[in-house]
Amino acid sequence: MSHSFRVEATADRLPEANAGLDAWWSGAGLPDEARFAFELVLEEIFMNVVMHGSPPEGAPCMVDVILDRQGDGVVMEIADDGLPFDPLAMESPDTAAPMEDRRVGGLGVYLVREMMDTVHYRHSEGRNRLSVFKSIGST
Hints:
- By secondary structure, this protein is an alpha+beta fold.
- It has a single domain (about 1-135), classed as Heat Shock Protein 90 (2-Layer Sandwich).
- The chain contains 3 helices and 5 strands; from the N terminus they run βααββαββ.
- It has helices at about 15-25, 30-55, 105-115; strands at about 1-10, 60-70, 75-80, 120-125, 125-135.
- Strands 1-2-3-5-4 form a 5-stranded antiparallel sheet, with helices on one face.
- The longest helix is centred in the first third of the chain and has 22 residues, at about 30-55.
- The model has no long low-confidence stretch (mean pLDDT about 90).
């Protein structure tokens, strides 16, 4: 059962994106305890698009979210028409370093990598496409 929705990349539209995920999740009868990881990933990537993806001048970019149940897991693709950016090319933060020695940024993408089983990025057809998969078990 696949589902997709489109949201304008502005901070005030994040609840709409979350509602789209929640509606599909509930409708698919998936376990509530597995939803948090996908909510966190959606929020992190969506807000990165809001803050860094749209050109400085002009309309905000659009974010498409595609959700699909595959085998024992869920695939979520977040696609945007913003500035090309591969978040997976960022160096992982040194989480063992003292706070004052850490560089700013990158922790959210690190969490995305840690919470999901697989994370892939590609830029195609003028769009950034981040695809994540996580096994949630059979339901």
